Each structure stands twice: as structure tokens, then as C-alpha cells.
């Protein structure tokens, strides 16, 4: 019986040593390099806009009406370095009819989507319309992004009846310098 107990104990010791040999672990590590690139993407949603001058609802002797257009949205994705911002600028090709100066106003979602400015006169020189854009993505739905309202500043004495005239507006999302 002593002998059986010795064999039994020896067997347990061997099994224990074998289990210990199989339960050994090891670890290794390495680096994963992460790069976040600067991004500045811009899209115009809503198609062409239309503004007009007419006499709807006015009485003789009053200034004409300017019918504004608020169907344009600017959608953008921006990633900037810490402490940096971007701006949205606009300029025209200078093809406005006599007596008409195109203007734009922007309404943003706030925060890092920037601050929209109002009644910004557009010309052939770039003008800031949205400032303080940080890292953001405005969304891609039909009414996501900065809502742009186009209107006109009129020099009444210079107005001349004109058929519809296309004025090209160029929007640029750029670093604020």
C-alpha cells in the first residue's frame, strides 16, 4: 500500500510539473504609429441661388424689394492643429449688374463649426463669411452645414433693368492666417 501511495504521489508530482510547464506565458510589444492629417473639404448643397429686385408690395415712391435666397448650405470637414482655425471666404467674378452688390450671410451650428457673419459684401476680393472654424464635420444632410443667405446691396440711382445675370461665387475653406 505504501508503494501505491508512493506511485500515486509521484504521479501527481509529474502531472503538476507537466501542467506548470504548459502554463508558462510570454509577452511582446511594439508601437503603432497614428497619424491624423489636416483636412479641409468643402461642398455646396442646394444648387444655384436666385436673388431679384421687384416691386411686390411697395407703393410708388418706395425703394424696390430685394428677394433673398437662403437655399444654399456649405458643408465642410475640417481637422486643424491645436490652437488653429480656418475661415470660409467668398468672392465673385465681378459680373453683378449695375447698381447691385451681392452680399452673403451665414448661420452655422456654432461651436467648432465657426461663427457666421451677416451682410458681407462680396466682390472680386475674398471676404470672410465664416470665421473660427475648428475641427468639425457639419454633416451631410440636405440642411446640414452653414446656411447661406444671398441678398443685394442696391445703389438705386445706378440700377438698370437686366435679364437674369449669372454671377459666379467661389467659396474657399482655408487656414486663418
Structural class: mainly beta
Write down the secondary-structure element order: HEEEEEEEEEEEE
Q: Which descriptor suits the 3D outline? A: rod-shaped
Helix content: 10-25%
Rg for CA atoms: 34 Å
Number of helices: 1
N-C termini distance? 93 Å
Based on DSSP secondary structure assignment, what is the total number of beta strands? 12
Folded structure, characterized:
The chain is mostly beta strands. Strands 1, 4, 6, 8, 10 and 11 form a six-stranded antiparallel sheet that branches. A four-stranded antiparallel sheet has the order 7-9-5-12, with no helix packed on it. It has a two-stranded antiparallel sheet with strand order 2-3. It starts with a helix and ends with a strand. About 10% of the residues lie in helices and about 40% in strands. The chain contains one helix and twelve strands; from the N terminus they run αββββββββββββ. The chain is rod-shaped. The protein has one domain.
